């Protein structure tokens, strides 16, 4: 034994250097360190999470969140993803508490010095990274099942709420075998636990064998959960379980390649939900939730490439953003489409088998996929991951007897207007082209690898339309000549263009207008082609785009006019849907009804506002409880057109709510209130004990997005309370989300 003579802390670099009296021999050795730490309240490392028991007593659980660089807050370790090890974990805990870690319990014995305490010993883990280690000590109930391949699956819930874990349990039990078949690699641990944590900064964390979640990302109450919450839980469970293979079994070499983990899991979660719930039409929703969101950010001059070089640990948090997740997922979706499912699966299996229990970089995945498909994957993908941004494809057409000639050109798309600059970046763009003859299948697939290209489509009659980017899969925007656009409008009107193509078309038009490339008037004229639109996701995207326009116009004299326009666009579908679900309706009808009523209510549509007030009164008085799917739109409507009394009632409902989902639902709409003094009241409430620290951000965000005055007030409030906010969240990503 050689005793260390000194510890030199380099706090800036989060390192410690140990000195010994003589040179250590090369070879293997064991380093033993006694250490002490604190259960902090920063939601990172080994921290305490506050909860209230059914009898109303406040208690604390001890839980962990190590990704990216906080395992070092719990125990001394080489805390980098590529330095993998096995972990033997024992927890000494009060004997009436549940103690969990990555592996199964192998021994539980009394602790010598204290009869109220036991020592719980867990099986040795596989070779793994430090950021995936986890432990939880607290009071929980659970539901359990076995997946059809024999893995023990449990969902842990707050005491008395085991029922609320059933939906996630069902999803998890279906998901594990799905991934096992897809990757053709078995799940490597004997068990998996999914657990709801009261105070949790992220949505969830994929710790190997012990996945932690916010309560709202895991718990579903059949009576009080809305359809969008179910869908959210299904997606998050699918995302975290995908990481058990992609991330945990094979881990990125360094944080530069984080996007591989997150982009991949953010793509395959949709594949998995589509398998479990085909009625969700989830791939259309992907386009509005991830693809268009990524394009919005990535068109800015201050975007960044998918692959970012990361030096200091403090820089890691910055890359957990919509570029890593949503653009990452979008380019993987494009890649999957370009390769085809069969070769993609083959390549995935090669990759996971070759690198299991090891680390890999982006290039390693390209190599496996290239070997499986024989296509130039690396060359194509480097243009999407190593440079920021994406192209705008301009297309015009000319009829040549029975054929259609298309002229295509690409330029970088910029939110600030046409790209000006010397060397315009270029992409290798997989392009699909469809026609009205068969709107659901590509007539032609090409790889556009130069700035300009001419393409001839054989046998296209003059009256047929031609569309680029079938399924809105390619990560680019399209600008059609006015004649081509004109010919596509009937396809929107008679719905012969598939929903995801209708969505992509209007989203491109709105962005081109926002960038000043085409006129907003032209885009609003196209809106009337959407009168017969039945699809929830198309409406949802349209609604976002009109919302952005309406925010801009709130600074002009046309704000009232745009509200009238919104009412005109949404009232026909509102009348068709009505307030109450009809027999035979499904998940998407419920989402659409909530969206449309919320939009009409917010715009001050008279009949909607009156009905919302009536139903709200019945709800508050307990005469007729609002169905979960109608609560958000009703709360929003009555608050926006209400007064101080309405706000007080909402805050009372918030206090009484037993479910975190309901508390969050109320927190997100409080910002709709309009009077300056009520806005101040909501902002003060955001920092109060009533709101969990992780949710403060959505209250302030709701105020900032709620009205013109709210935006100014929220910004002033943040500046005035900066020290408290900064101290609360330190460098975590909640604070960057807030900004």
- Spatial arrangement of strands, main beta sheet: 10-11-12-14-13
- Which secondary-structure class do the elements indicate? alpha+beta
Mean pLDDT: 94
Shape: globular
Note the total helix count.
23
Query: Biggest β-sheet: count, sense, barrel?
Result: 5 strands, mixed
Helix amount: 40-55%
Number of strands: 23
Residue ranges: pLDDT <50 for 5 or more in a row? none
Radius of gyration: 27 Å
Ends distance: 52 Å
Strand content: 15-25%
Written account of the structure:
The chain is of the alpha+beta class. Helices cover 43% and strands 18% of the residues. The chain is built from 23 helices and 23 strands. It has a 5-stranded mixed β-sheet with strand order 10-11-12-14-13, with helices on one face. A 4-stranded mixed β-sheet has the order 21-18-17-23. A 3-stranded antiparallel β-sheet has the order 5-8-7, with no helix packed on it. Strand 11 (152-157), helix 1 and strand 12 (191-197) form a beta-alpha-beta unit. Helix 1 (166-183) crosses helix 3 and helix 4 (282-298) runs parallel beside helix 10 (499-514). The longest helix is centred in the middle third of the chain and has 19 residues, at 258-276. The model has no long low-confidence stretch (mean pLDDT 94). It is found in: Cytoplasm; Membrane. The active site is at residue 240. Belongs to the peptidase M1 family. It is a single-pass type II membrane protein. It holds the Pfam family ERAP1_C.
Compact summary:
With 739 residues, the protein is α+β, with helices and mostly antiparallel strands.
């Amino acid at each position: 034994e050689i005793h260390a003579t000194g510890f030199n802390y380099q706090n800036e670099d989060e390192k410690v250097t140990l000195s010994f009296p003589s040179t250590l021999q090369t070879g293997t050795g064991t380093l033993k360190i006694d250490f002490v730490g604190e259960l902090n309240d920063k939601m990172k490392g080994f921290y305490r999470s506050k909860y209230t028991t059914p009898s109303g007593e406040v208690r604390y659980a001890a839980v962990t969140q190590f990704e990216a660089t906080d395992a070092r807050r719990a125990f001394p370790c080489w805390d980098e993803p590529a330095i993998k090890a096995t972990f033997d974990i024992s927890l000494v805990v009060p004997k009436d508490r549940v103690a969990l870690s990555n592996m199964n319990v192998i021994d539980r014995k009394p602790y010598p010095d204290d009869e109220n305490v036991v020592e719980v010993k867990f099986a040795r883990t596989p070779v793994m990274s430090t950021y995936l280690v986890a432990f939880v000590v607290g009071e929980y109930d659970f539901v359990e099942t076995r997946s059809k391949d024999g893995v023990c699956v449990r969902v842990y819930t707050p005491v008395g709420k085991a029922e609320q874990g059933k939906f996630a349990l069902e999803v998890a039990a279906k998901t594990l075998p799905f991934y096992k078949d897809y990757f053709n690699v078995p799940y490597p641990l004997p068990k998996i636990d999914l657990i709801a944590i009261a105070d949790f900064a992220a949505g969830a964390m994929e710790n190997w064998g012990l996945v932690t979640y916010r309560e709202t990302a895991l718990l579903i109450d059949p009576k009080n959960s809305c359809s969008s919450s179910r869908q959210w839980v299904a997606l998050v469970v699918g995302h975290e379980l995908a990481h058990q293979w992609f991330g945990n079994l094979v881990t990125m070499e360094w944080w530069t390649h984080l996007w591989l983990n997150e982009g991949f899991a953010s793509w395959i979660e949709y594949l998995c939900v589509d398998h479990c719930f085909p009625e969700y039409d989830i791939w259309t929703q992907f386009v509005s939730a991830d693809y268009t969101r990524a394009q919005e950010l990535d068109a800015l001059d201050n975007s960044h490439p998918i692959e970012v070089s990361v030096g200091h640990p403090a820089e890691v948090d910055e890359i957990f953003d919509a570029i890593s997740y949503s653009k990452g997922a979008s380019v993987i979706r494009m890649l999957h489409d370009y390769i085809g499912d069969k070769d993609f699966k083959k390549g995935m299996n090669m990759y996971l088998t070759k690198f299991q229990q090891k680390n890999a970089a982006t290039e390693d995945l390209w190599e496996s996929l290239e070997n499986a498909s024989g296509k130039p994957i690396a060359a194509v993908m480097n243009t999407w991951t190593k440079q920021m941004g994406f192209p705008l494809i301009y297309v015009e057409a000319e009829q040549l007897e029975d054929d259609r000639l298309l002229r295509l050109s690409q330029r970088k798309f910029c939110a600030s207007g046409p790209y000006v600059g010397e060397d315009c970046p270029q992409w290798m763009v997989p392009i699909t082209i469809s026609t009205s003859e068969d709107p659901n299948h590509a007539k032609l697939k090409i790889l556009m690898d130069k700035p300009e290209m001419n393409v001839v489509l054989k046998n296209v009659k003059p009256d047929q339309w031609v569309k680029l980017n079938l399924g809105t899969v390619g990560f680019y925007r399209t600008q059609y000549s006015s004649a081509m656009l004109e010919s596509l409008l009937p396809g929107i009107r008679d719905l012969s263009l598939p929903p995801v193509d209708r969505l992509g078309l209007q989203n491109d038009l709105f962005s081109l207008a926002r960038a000043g490339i085409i006129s907003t008037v032209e885009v609003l004229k196209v809106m009337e082609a959407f009168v017969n639109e039945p699809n929830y996701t198309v409406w949802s995207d349209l609604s976002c785009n009109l919302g952005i326009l309406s925010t801009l116009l709130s600074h002009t004299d046309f704000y009232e006019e745009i509200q009238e326009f919104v009412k005109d666009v949404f009232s026909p579908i509102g009348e068709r849907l009505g307030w109450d679900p009809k027999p035979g309706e499904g998940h998407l009808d419920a989402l659409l009804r909530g969206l449309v009523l919320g939009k009409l209510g917010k715009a001050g549509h008279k009949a909607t506002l009156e009905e919302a007030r009536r139903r709200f009164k019945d709800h508050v008085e307990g005469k007729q409880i609002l169905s979960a799917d109608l609560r958000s739109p009703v709360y929003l409507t009555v608050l926006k057109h209400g007064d101080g009394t309405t706000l007080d009632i909402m805050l009372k409902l918030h206090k009484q709510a037993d479910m975190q989902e309901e508390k969050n639902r109320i927190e997100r709409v409080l910002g709709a209130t309009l009077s300056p003094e009520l806005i101040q009241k909501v902002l003060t409430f955001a920092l109060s004990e009533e709101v969990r620290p992780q949710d403060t951000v959505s209250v302030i965000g709701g105020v900032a997005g709620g009205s013109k005055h709210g935006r100014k007030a929220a910004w002033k409030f943040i500046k005035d309370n900066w020290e408290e906010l900064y101290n609360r969240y330190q460098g975590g990503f909640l604070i960057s989300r807030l900004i």
